[in-house]
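Researcher: Quick sanity check before group meeting.
Model: Go ahead. Protein one:
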Amino acid sequence: MIDFVQLQEIVKKQLEQDRAIRSVDASGPTLEAAVNEAAALLDTSIRRLEYEIIERGSSGFMGAGKKDWVIRAYEHVSTKKKKHAEELLVDEEFDSAAVVVNEDGDAYVQCRSDGVYLKVIPPQGNGRRIYSAYAMQALHDRNISDFDNAMVETLVESADGMYVKVAEFKHNPMQDSMAQVEVDDAEMKVFVTVIPPGEGGADLNFDAYKSLCAQNRVYHGVKDDFLVKFADRPTYREKVEIAEGTRPMNGKDAYIHHYFETDQTKIKLKEGTNGRVNFKELNIIQNVVQNQPLAKKMPAEDGVDGKTVTGKILPARSGNDIPLPVGTNVHVNEDEDTILADINGQVILAGGKINVEPVLTVEGDVNLKTGNIIFLGTVIVTGNIEDGFSVKAAGNIEVKGTVSKAELDAEGDIIIYQGINGKSGGKIRAGRSLWSRFIENANVEVGNMVVVTDGIINSQVDAIKSIVCMGKRANIMGGRLRAGEEINAKVLGNSTSGTETICEVGFDPHSKIELERLMTIKASAEDELETMRLDLQTLINTKKQRKTLPEEKELFLQELMERRQVLTEELKKAIDGIQKVQEFMNQIQVRGRVSASTKVWPGVIVWIREIKEVVRTEYKAVTFVLENGLVRVTKYEEPDELAKRGLDGYNSN
């Protein structure tokens, strides 16, 4: 056996050995930087360093709380002597990805009812082994002095991580360590609070903790690996989590994986060096061939049941199934999970259904030779659309030439490569967006946005979202333009007096048109009722005085009374409609802005919601916005990025 004096001699010898080791403290913003600095200070290779982390670094938050890494690095003298020969054999570079936190070996002591046990664990990575003195000191820290010295040295040498008896122990059961186990109300977490042993008391080992779990009906989710380490070095008088239940995992719902593009924002508009959009490169129609797969249903997944720490099953919900979105001109495969095309054409996702629409190509112009066109699909016109003709399509309309005083109506997008000259007539309506080189003297109404490269002149243009002119001649001169979110151009108005340029944003154009229509009906009904009231009053007074009226006047009186009833009902409907539209418009939270990247001429009228602003002076590169009930002039803002992107998954060559 070894006494305390002998232990001091062993520690003294160990200190003399440690003096043969050079060490430096180094720091850096990263662990790699600190290791590099230590290697430089010791004049050795990084691969030949042994180090321990003194203080972990932190990148902090927004530059605050930043801390450097601090390490203590060592180099043995014997390593120094071999350094030159080793560098002739290999010159390895430092690989930051291979850096791991090295852990030294350690020794743990447990006092049990039948004796004192010692466990020695080996180092990890480049960590250092412990010496016998370290293990002996661990025993002395527990007031154990009469132990088997040879056994301790054997355990340090083998470092097999197993507890072995090294001394006798006078056990006092009244002083044993105690633990209180607490299971939360949901039976999903288990905590233990440990009271340290007194003099002569035994420690709680791993088996004791497992037994405590069993006594408290904790069978699932016990953290065995943690308990092994906790038994070696417990934390006293603190609540520590030792078990956790498994929460149920609901299965994923079935979903549709599309083999075609469904998001219009992912197809970008291409603009040439001259500032013009090359519509030929839009690739806005997605053509498919017969039996081509269009979409596949990914099946719903089963849920994974959870379990409480006491073993109760927590059922999980399985994913929900969904039907295949089968539209027109498509069919389902034998496995009933994939949608295939019936015909050659273009694939469209409309109303949540996958459809394949055929494409009608008109070679040349739409004129007397072709007549008016009505088609349940997409129409491509390689020429022009002449005055007085109409093209109506359930899909898109593409015109390679110009559109004159004609009518175009598409449920999808309208693409006009040259432009529109409506000659103060005709009508262009698109369910989604309109793309054109220019718009002049035309009436346009779209469900999303209008994008023009060479400007808009003396036209009525309504867009639910935005009106954007982008190009070298992207001017808006004259006319009335209404958009829900923004109007953006290079120049607004012109230098000479002429047709007013009115820009209105911040509301739903359709709602405002409906409001104006209802206001007109209301005003007309009120005027007619006022005139009718005077006529009725005259006839009624005459009848009271004379007791009767001539036949023709009696008939006229009845007609007036019937007409008054009709007008009263119309007026009531108009007032109710006005109230509903106004409530809807008040609920719409749209910022609304009018922008000009170069210039705004005096005379331009800007409406943002219900606030009007007449431009009195010339502005350059500005955006008009509504702030605190007033139209303010701010720095120019670029148009919405979505306005620069392409269409809803279509392709045209």
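Researcher: Fine. The other one?
Model: Protein two, sequence then structure:
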Amino acid sequence: MIYALIGNQNCGKTTLFNQLTGSNQHVGNFPGVTVEKKEGQVRRGTDGVVDLPGIYSLSPYTAEEVVTRDFLIREKPDAILNIVDATNIERNLYLTLQLIELQRPMVVALNMMDEVVASGGSIDISTLSRELGVEVVPISAAKNQGISELIDRVRRVAENRILPAKMDFCDGPVHRAIHGITHLIEDHAAAARIPARFAATKLIEGDAPTLEAIRLNDNELDTLEHITAEMETALGTDREAALADMRYNYIERLAAVAVHKPKETREQARSVRIDAVLTNKYLAIPIFLLIMSLVFWLTFGVVGATLSDWMAAAVEWVTGQVDGALTVFGLNPVVHSLVIDGIFTGVGSVLSFLPTIVVLFFFLSLLEDSGYMARVAFVMDKLLRKIGLSGRSFVPMLIGFGCSVPAIMATRTLSSDRDRKMTIILTPFMSCSAKLPIYAVFTAAFFPRRAALVMILLYVMGMVVAILYGLLLKATLFRGQPVPFVMELPAYRLPAPRSILLHMWEKAKDFIRKAFTVIFLASLVIWFLQTLDIRFNVVADSADSMLASVGALVAPMFAPLGFGDWRAGTALITGLTAKEAVVSTLAVLMGAANQTELQPLLASLFTPAAAFSFLTFTLLYMPCVAAFAAVRREYGSTLKAVGIMAAQTGVAWCTALLVYHAALMIL
């Protein structure tokens, strides 16, 4: 059987999904982290759970609401598992009432009950269950409390096809409108396999998908409009507000008899005190920059750098052991070179940066899961509006610091098509984690005493360029104003260790998979092209190889930027497969077994000014082919995607040129 897991954003839905399935699903404490439905299997059995995007209503205004609604109506899951935030029960029940109208087997999971109880509050579960007509189970997803009972209840409800009790909590003009339209469309709703009351409420709201599915004739459409207009006249309000008032009036009556809680939980009170400082008008941005500087210093200057050195030593030891074994075995010199100079050098040079990436995402997970990053989006709203975006666009941009692909996909949470397309263009300017190996090698080689400062400058440069480019887009291609920004700020909470470990493992797994697939294949190709000439003869000097011929074609383009050597140009080309390949390519081309050996060799290719120019170009030029594919998919046009990437690379070239000449005067 299939259960649909659905609830508001920040209600703990993805945490519950992890508890139900044991999935390595990332848990984020800011809106928009779940962009597409995700599937898993219940640990105690064979039933499946589909994690749907967090939404507030079944009216499809945004992409995630469309995904959720389409799944519920078309796929018809065996049961709906509606997760409700007990600390915000009135707002959460608005969606619950709409789900009940779908008349599918359903269970309500009342999450964060531990916080309600700890704050001196209480919820009468039996009264709530009786009034809603569905099973209600109190749980704490973060603490794994009540999960076993929840699984048993939802399985029983699904197996026995127990439908919610039919509710009729409307009165007055709304009551007459809903019942009149229900009778009008009853046959059409049955033919479309949509519950009649649900269809009636959606038709009153002017819901286009429902109107298309019901297929009313002209007379019926006139009757529908007449009934709705009568209701609006009688109430003196518009149709959507009338239905919203009806639902919230019922929720208020229900909460009055079933819910007793203080005005705010301990977590909410604590959040108010913390926000007085962290979202302060004058202190918010300096505090954010200070926190990120501390994260980068610990990652690149203390913890991550030390662990990466240990990893590099381990890779070097393994390489030496394999090299010695192959020598003793007497393997053919060409094959020996392929294994050691191609595979071990290419993959090993990238693999040594795994600890740095894991450490970085440990700190980012702490900030994200605590609820702080949601505040950053709120604080950034004023700044982003100056370039024509709202604070909600900061969420995809923030994800872009990890990887551009999910960041581009996360733009689907933006309700405005204008904002979404503009954010897609600007997100790749954020420095993704795949570029960290490049930064680490070059800063260690050319700026060892200022490594953390250079890292911070690069990240800030990416944001500054995005802002300037955004201003240009706002004045040309994307005229107009962003949509109003409404964002729920979750209470500050201590991040769950399991959530952070899952996030770190997810990033480590992705990095390792990329190292042994994309980087592995790229290293093989680079070795062959570097070892053989156009006649497939082994060359004594890589400058005579096929790779040198390819690199020589692009090298003149980068000469004004300070790095006109064919090896630098070749590394940038292979970086289009994956940015980590830039380091592995340079290692293979320069015969370095690891990053320690590569660093001094880079001095023959770059001056300090050219090195910083190279870092700038690497930061800003078009992302990997996977990100390109994501842009093409979201825009629905290969030509537009090519244009976006070409423009971004042009911005990178111009910026690197300015940086190079500025660096010549400073360094």
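Researcher: One line on it for the slide.
Model: Residues 284-329 form the longest helix (46 residues).
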